[in-house]
Specification:
The protein is α+β, with helices and mostly antiparallel strands and 130 residues long. Helices cover 47% and strands 17% of the residues.
Amino acid sequence: MVSSVRAQRIADRIYQELSTILLMEVADPRLENVSITKVKVDRELAFASIYVSSFEGPESSDAILDGLNHAGGFLRSQLAHRIQLRVFPRLRFYWDPSPAHADRIDKLIASLHEDSEPDIPEETEKDPDG
């Protein structure tokens, strides 16, 4: 069992390296617009839970998760070469709905601001003669 600080450092390193691998080395078209939102490693270093999102939204989540699970062995071996651990954790991929929720909240707030702006009457042009 590792300390929570060490587990967080390992999670941060997995986040960095996996982001690079997905950007530079994976050719699967399902994984082109994938971004990693969070990585959690358990204290036994048995599993790394990887949360992902995409610009395409939740409609593509099944295809993206299938692509990640299909590439899981390759990703794990690449990570194991880059991050020196005695035993490398197994990767589990999850869809993170947080970006979609944040976008929805932003839109709601923007619509509230639009609705609450007071109507300012336009100034009428003054007639210089009268």
